[in-house]
Amino acid sequence: MKKYLNKYSLSSRHSGNLLAGIHGSVNTQISGITSILSVKNILFFTLAISCLYLAQAHASDEIPGNKQTHPIALTGGTVHTVSGETLVNATLLFDNGKITAIGSTMTLSDSTEKIDISGKHVYPGLIAANSRVGLVEIDAVRSTQDYAEVTQIKPNVRVESALNPDSELLPVLRANGITMTHTIPMGGLLSGTSAMVMMDGWTWEDLTLRAPIGLYVNWPTMAPFRGNLNEKQKSEFLKKRDSQIQQLKDAFADARAYSKAKEAESLKTSVYHKSDIRWEAMMPVLNKEIPVLLEASGIREIEASIDWAMSEDLDVVLMTGTDVRFALDLLKEKNIPVIYKGTLALPLRRYEPYDTPFTVPKLMSDSGVRYCISGSGTPFEAAHERNLPYQAAMAVAYGLSPEEALKAITLYPAQILGVADRVGALEVGKDATLIVTDGDPLDIRTQVEMEYIQGRAVQLTSRHTRLNDKYKTKYARMK
Amino acid sequence: MKALSRFRIFMFVQGIIFFIPQFAMGQTQPQDAIRENTPNVHALINSRIVQSPDRIIEKGTIILRDGIITDVGESVKIPEDARIWDYSGLTVYPGFIESYMPVKLEEKTGSKNGTTSLKPAYWNPNVHPEESAFNCAPLKDTDLQALRNQGITAAVLIPEDGIFSGSSVLISLGEGTANSQVLKQNVAQNIHFSRPPRSGELPVYPASQMGVIALIRQTFLDADWYDKAQRAYVLNQSSQIRPETNLALQALALSLKEKQPFAFRTFDDLNSLRALKVAREFGLNVWLVGNGEEYRQLTPLKNANVPLIIPVNFPPAPDVDSPEDAVQLSLRELNHWDSAPLNARFLKNADIPFSFSSVDLKNKSDFLKNIRKTVERGLPPEDALAALTMVPATVLGMDDKLGSIDTGKLAHLIVCYGDIFAKENSIFSLWINGKIYEIQKKPQFDLAGAWDLNLQLPQQNLMQELVLSGKAGKLSGALKSDSLKISVNKIALDFSRISMVFLGDSLGLKGMVRLSGKAEANHLTGSGMLADGSVFKWNAKRKSAMESKNDTRKKPNPDLNEPLSVPLDAYAYRHIPAQQPIVFVQNATIWTSSEKGLLEEADLLIVNGKITEVGKNLTAPAKALIIDARGKHVTPGLIDAHSHTAISQGVNEGTQAVTSEVRIEDVINPEDIGLYRELAGGLTIINQLHGSANPIGGQNSVIKLRWGADAEGLRVRDAIPGIKFALGENVKQSNWGEKFTTRYPQTRMGVEQIIFDRFKAAQDYELTWQKYNERRDKTGIIPPRRDLELEALVEILNGKRLIHSHSYRQDEILMLTRLAEYFNFQIGTFQHVLEGYKVAEALAQHGAGASTFSDWWAYKFEVYDAIPYNGAIMHEAGVLVSFNSDDNELARRMNLEAAKAVKYGGVPEQEALKFVTLNPAKQLRIDHRVGSLEKGKDGDFVVWSGHPLSSFSRCEQTWIEGRKYFDLENDLQMRDTVEKERQRLIQKVLISQNKPAGGLK
Q1: What is the CATH number of domain B98-438?
Q2: pTM for the full model?
Q3: ipTM of the complex
Q4: Of A93, A114, B344, B902, most Cβ neighbours within 10 A?
């Protein structure tokens, strides 16, 4: 309850700031333009204008799905529940955006829309567990970058209110079965809170399945990557590292102090304390209502960051790459789940086996570490998040079972990110967020033919299909 | 006063002088004080004389007169006027020669931004062969002293800035004016084979290694032209424009004419091979200044047969204290730590002569130390000595003056306390031009050990055991017998004088007893004083059996038995795999990428690397290597038409808008692990392209992934030469930051114009040469200057070089197509060409290939309209389409990229596979030998575990020309080897740092 109040007050404070924010930003823009003109750089001026246009006026042509108005039954297809068994020639029924029945025989009301999907397959919508989708349109165009706020400690920053529902990226991802992205802010040490974002909706509130999901912590590099620094550089590196770690520790200590003072205040045992929205935003983390999303690259970073998180008594989701293979025992012991940042990557070091990134999911699976598979999460990757299933498929080519691989992009991310009550599997009571395909979504050649997000039928067209159609018309006319 | 503490080389400026010993003074200098005329005649007697590595006089005499060795031998008549130096127990060596000592030029030449130098220099500030080490900044006497401390008596000074840095000078390292110390001028021209450091905010040409090589090449051509032009002009001044005056080219032309040596300074093993290649191209008399990695390239160095100067800068032990640290270390780093001290021995074993240099040593005192380490690791001391004396003397053409102790040579000598390659022997003094320089006056007695001390007291002789420990300056000791121990204090050793104090009470000597006297290695003698002031004699004799230290080098050296084999980097092959004479793949599903289409249960026969048959029910020839591929799929080797794998030190020469003179083939890196990793994904050929930083980039290189071959061995020589062009945001520097707003072009309009203008220039160039060549009588006619940049463009105009143009937007694609049509040539490929689908008909009509990304988009504004249907639409419109990677990671799964052509646009599977096999082969004009599995083509194929377009399939084997380059089994074995080798070396590092008691073998 307390958490909710905090969040609510946070939100209202945000909306209070909104006007001031807009006012401020207008001023900034004007002075920005003046300064551009004062250096007489017409080129940059035009560039700036075109970017503004791009960022503010562009909208994708796809129309969000309509709220489900009647029950829909998908009949005759193979239902891959993922959490349970796979039912051949079965029916999946959903109503009001929720799955209401799955089975081989069921009576359907007259109002039920029956869609024959014989020969097709139904899967839960895929979840991209590590992404910047919604916060970036064109990464090289600065005005379309919204993923990294300034300052080191900004737990109050939240992604959902900056999501662009009209991003052209969303329909593109959706068309290949990516129904949700876990969108995470970046930059600094405590970058802000993430959200589970659906690829359909009119507003950012529509898009947000749940927020906050976790607080992103970017753990500092513990040792220089290579030993070629001189002594002075080394000591400077270590000094900076230590100060960063101290900043993180201080942030948590300060947040706890704030929490304590506010507690006392609420019990009327102390005076009023002025608010600090940074520490308010951290209450859900301190109360273990949401985890920290701990990004740590190498084995040293993994060990150090987990030590720290344990000492702070936090729930942890580790975001990491191939070095996770050195920490499997630790992760198992502490029951820490992993967002594995992609198989489609190069080995970190020259001497490592060529298939190291491909084989790590199997190692995690075999050792009983909870994990899911994502992409690299770079802003570049946002536009290419549709290739998520192939990250999982590569692990299959190198030893993981296909069933596990599918879970690693549906059920497992839902569980790890605390949304398994809503999505990640086809079960009665869960959201009707699902895809209908002509085959295994892990195979590139497979097509997604239908898609529902919370029962809303979504368009599978996109900027790409529109341009495809447009230019096909050009060549048809030439014939 | 400051100037006085420095030594300065000068040519024009007079008189900045260090100490003025009379014999070292310039003869033209006026005297302004009392003359000093001490006779300069010396006889060094009773020493062991190492005249040269193979001539040793156990006890002999050397006579020096006025800086010259006038006699040397066992029994030599000592001149009456000679000063005698008794060198009993000492060893005399020829002075060491430092062949490569970089010095900073005091002022850089060339015009800087905003200033105009009056000096007619080369256009590029990195080229100043007219410079000389004479113009270096003043040398510090401490630097000279540091070299002398290592036994170095003469050094070649090298101007260190720039690419053509200037000519070097050989000097004696004695004190005195430069006038008296110069031994040889214009020793060599010096070329630095590396990217010059960035000076200023914007990068300056050349910023890549290929740019450096291109600049070197053009400069040599320019020097040649300059000479011809000047000579022609002299003959005919009235009817032609006077050619430019250029001191740099003038100097270089002279050096070339006089066949002066060119010393190429290299920075890694591949770098040195590239230097050799350039030197061969211009027929240079080349010296190679190495980098410590020579052991990795023994065969080419042996074949090159050029003077080699190698540094002895061994890497410090890598940090392996924790497994987390060790995990960061490459096998190569570990190997190099272990092998660097063996470098010289490798060369010796391969019979490659070399000189040692202290170049790259931050601390010059490591020079002798590291050479001793090399000797300890098995380099015969004679060879070490040769590398410091006779070899460099001969290379420098100074073997009549330096390099050995012989009559008539300069008096450059080292006087050492013993074998100079034994750790414990320090250098006593040097002779340079007949003047003595004391280095280590104090003999380094190691007094530690047990001694029999005899105190000859007034009443009695008292015998005690004296145990000394520690080194001079920090000696401690004790008197010991069975029952007692008395500590001895204040032990001091000053020169050969020793003194100590102890409390005598327990010996029956009341109070403090003092001893002092003379120390020798095994004897101490002197007098002592008791508390009452009475004096007595004492002496001590070393107890241990080891009498002399001179025998240590005779100790058996365990390292000598180390097997000498060049270490392999992870997954490296020593050679390319053996060619299987007959390979028979049977029962496979074969994707031929030819008219035969897909063959099930089919066989493939490869004889001597060429496909001889593809089909069903073939018979395996006797002795065939049979691959049973039942249930598996076989495809042609995959081809990537856009790669930056295996390119050393810079993919872009992006400092100028037009760099058609740079060549990727100059900087192929056959050691890039990317090649092996790509083989593991079924890739067999890549088109190595220059980057997209400028409208006209560099020349491409097409290579087969023949892992284990050298750079030349990778190349596919019958591919038509190509060149990278680029259009759009990258070349107009849209995303480079705010500093980059001045280079032409900054708009797509300008991109068109600069390309257009440069082709016009190429036409003019060709015409100029035609006219010149048509002249019967060329006497007195200034020839046109060869311009490598324009020559590449002329090749394009003549259809001999293909453009591979980076492009995104339809306007620019169409623009370049039309531009090519204006000049009447055909574009090879548009690369990326992400809006190619908008102008597919124009591409098809022109006949340009399209090498595109399967599905990348939205990473910059110009690719916002990129769609994954691009390949399919262009394919349907009749364009020759391939999918490329442009990325070392993506290049490992090109088969899956092909699958995206099926997904987006429904290209039939076999056609889709051609996007990464036959089509790129056609685009590179190598489809006559690769791209499909057809009779007569190269035996390049991949065995897949399943359907090649399925994400669940993996590459099991990759073959090129009947050689198996990748194989899952073999890969597992190599992993094992890599891991074992890493652990072995890590253990070796740990042991070297923490020697456990008991010693190690």
Answers
A1: 3.20.20.140
A2: 0.89
A3: 0.89
A4: B344
